[in-house]
TrEMBL record:
Organism: Myotis myotis (Greater mouse-eared bat)
Membrane protein topology class: Multi-pass membrane protein
Main location: membrane
Pfam families, per database record: CLZ, cNMP_binding, Ion_trans
Segments of this protein annotated with the region Disordered: 538-575
Reactions it catalyzes: Na(+)(in) = Na(+)(out); K(+)(in) = K(+)(out); Li(+)(in) = Li(+)(out); Rb(+)(in) = Rb(+)(out)
Organism phylogeny: Eukaryota, Metazoa, Chordata, Craniata, Vertebrata
Cellular component terms (Gene Ontology): ciliary membrane; intracellular cyclic nucleotide activated cation channel complex
Protein name listed in UniProt: Cyclic nucleotide-gated channel alpha-4
Transmembrane segments: 34-58, 172-190, 218-237, 244-265
Residue ranges that the Swiss-Prot or TrEMBL entry lists as coiled coil: 475-524
Record-linked SMART domains: cNMP
Length: 575
């Protein structure tokens, strides 16, 4: 029984662990849950950053709402504690992979400065209330150490918001408010230290009517600090040393704050101008060019109206340049999510492979046409097809007034001219005049781009040609005889090519045989030459050549003996 119970207990443990993992998951630092937790932590950090100094400098505020402050204080402490727990359950990237091992996460977190600051911010300094009293909120100044969490939340929000420039301005205004708030609290505390109403610079005596109210005290201090930090002037002159030091410090802070504000605003304006330049073409250069070339005012007005339409209605014509820094696959996904629905409406592209459509989406070029502007004219060479995204276009006669049909959003034209269909009676020429009735947004797909994509998808090319053929049949624009002639000519050409390929293969085979025979003959000749050389070495030498050889050897021996005796006797007169 005991063994069975042990087995049951061991078997019942894994579900408990899996349940614990579900209740306390590992957070992705780039995920939504972590982002919203950071936004939650903004409130306790801002509460401590603003309220503690205010309670310390305005005694009436501390005494009047003591219970509320205790509730808010320990609620923020609870959030601080939960934030440490979140830190222990927040993964990190290693080699691009999210680490979810809680042991490694914990060991990494405890070795960082962030862990030290988080612990220091939760040191229970409130215990000193027992000795110093409940009205000493300065004991909670260590809660300021959690301010880096506020900056992290602001950075994440700036990258996620759709209006980063507006958020930067709002963040800057918040920083300015916090600085003025702190300065106003310090001004009131200094006035209390020097004595209310002692001179014109400090806060007036609260005994005067109206100056005893807490709201008046804070608003007067905030107004006075705003005048100092904005260097507006119109403030009483300081009279004591403490007042002079306070003014000097505020002036230095004002100079630094003014430089920071100017730099931040310049950065925001520059980013906005850069974004506009990236989204919309620069019209200043075009306007200057038209002025230098003395373009007539009517045409110049049309160009200006076109630029104005782009900016007012947020039309973009350079999407490729905007998305160029994204990875290729991510750029394709963005383009697919924006334009795939439009491309899939085209009849010849329906039922095509998804990968083919993704390739084509990256090739689409947005174009905007002004009212009365011709997209194409009859007889023009068709090098691209158009898909209507927004607006209306009319098929007009040669006079430009008579309308045969009106094309709306989702329709397309010019698709047949970019596909080489055999028997096409119109060839690659435009068969109609297309004019924009108002401002029209089109997608343009060039013949070269389509051919480049279809070279990787031959099956899709066959399907598209068949669909184009069906469309031409319905339009009575397909010459069956010409198509048959082209098919016969293509088959004959392919047959000749196959014959040439076969002949080339035969020639290569014969050439290989000749080369092999040549190598074999060369080896045989070399072998025979070597054999003849060995045979000639064994032949007997003729008698005349043998006698001449003997005389030469004896002569050489005599000369060698004479030279030896001469060397032994030495030179004459040596004795």
């Amino acid at each position: 029984m005991s063994q069975d119970s042990k087995v049951k207990t061991t078997e019942s443990r894994p579900p408990v662990q899996s349940k614990a993992r579900k209740t306390l998951p590992v957070l992705d630092p780039s995920g939504d849950y972590y982002y919203w937790w950071l936004n939650t932590m903004v409130f306790p950090v801002m509460y401590n950053l603003i309220i503690i100094v205010c309670r310390a400098c305005f005694p009436d505020l501390q005494h009047g709402y003591l219970v509320a402050w205790f509730v808010l204080d320990y609620t923020s402490d609870l959030l601080y504690l939960l934030d440490i727990v979140v830190h222990f359950h927040t993964g990190f990237l290693e080699q691009g992979i999210l680490v979810v091992d809680k042991g490694r996460i914990s060991s990494r977190y405890v070795r960082t400065w962030s862990f030290c600051l988080d612990l220091a911010s939760l040191v229970p300094t409130d215990v000193a209330y027992v000795r110093l009293g409940l009205h000493t909120p300065t004991l909670r100044l260590n809660r300021f150490l959690r301010v880096p969490r506020l900056f992290e939340a602001f950075d994440r929000t700036e990258t996620r918001t759709a209006y980063p420039n507006a958020f930067r301005i709002a963040k800057l205004m918040l920083y300015i408010f916090v600085v003025i708030h702190w300065n106003s609290c310090l001004y009131f505390a200094l006035s209390q230290y020097l004595g209310f109403g002692r001179d014109a610079w400090v806060y007036p005596d609260p005994a005067q009517p109206g100056f005893e109210r807490l709201r008046r005290q804070y608003l007067y201090s905030f107004y006075f600090s705003t005048l100092i930090l904005t260097t507006v002037g119109d403030i009483p002159l300081p009279e004591r040393e403490e007042e002079f030091l306070f003014m000097v410090g505020d002036f230095l802070l004002a100079v630094m704050g003014f430089a920071t504000i100017m730099g931040s605003m310049s950065s925001v304006i520059y980013n906005m101008n850069t974004a506009d330049a990236a989204f919309y073409p620069d019209h200043a250069l075009v306007k200057k060019y038209m002025k230098l070339q003395h373009v007539n005012r009517r045409l110049e007005r049309r160009v200006i109206d076109w630029y104005q339409h782009l900016q007012i209605n947020k039309k973009m014509t350079n999407e490729v340049a905007i998305l160029q820094h994204l990875p290729e696959r991510l750029r394709a996904e963005v383009a697919v999510s924006v334009h795939l629905s439009t491309l899939s409406r085209v009849q010849i592209f329906q039922n095509c492979e998804a990968s083919l459509l993704e390739e084509l989406v990256l090739k689409l070029q947005p174009q905007t046409y002004s009212p009365g502007e011709y997209v194409c004219r009859k007889g023009d060479i068709g090098r691209e097809m158009y898909i209507i995204r927004e607006g209306q276009l009319a098929v007009v006669a040669d006079d430009g007034v008579t309308q045969y049909a009106v094309l709306g959003a989702g329709l397309y034209f010019g698709e047949i001219s970019i596909i080489n269909i055999k028997g096409n009676m119109s060839g690659n020429r435009r068969t109609a005049n297309i004019k924009s009735l108002g401002y029209s947004d089109l997608f343009c797909l060039s013949k070269e781009d389509l051919r480049e994509v279809l070279s990787e998808y031959p099956q899709a090319q066959t399907v598209m040609e068949e669909k184009g053929r069906e469309i031409l049949l319905k339009m009575n624009k397909l010459d069956i005889n010409a198509e048959a002639a082209e098919i016969a000519l293509q088959e004959a050409t392919e047959s000749r090519l196959r014959g040439l390929d076969q002949q080339l293969d035969d020639l290569q085979t014969k050439f290989a045989r000749l080369l092999a025979e040549l190598e074999s003959s060369a080896l045989k000749i070399a072998y025979r030459i070597e054999r003849l050389e060995w045979q000639t070495r064994e032949w007997p030498m003729p008698e005349e050549l043998a006698e001449a050889d003997d005389e030469g050897e004896s002569g050489e021996g005599t000369s060698k003996d004479e030279e030896g005796r001469a060397s032994q006797e030495g030179p004459p007169g040596s004795e």
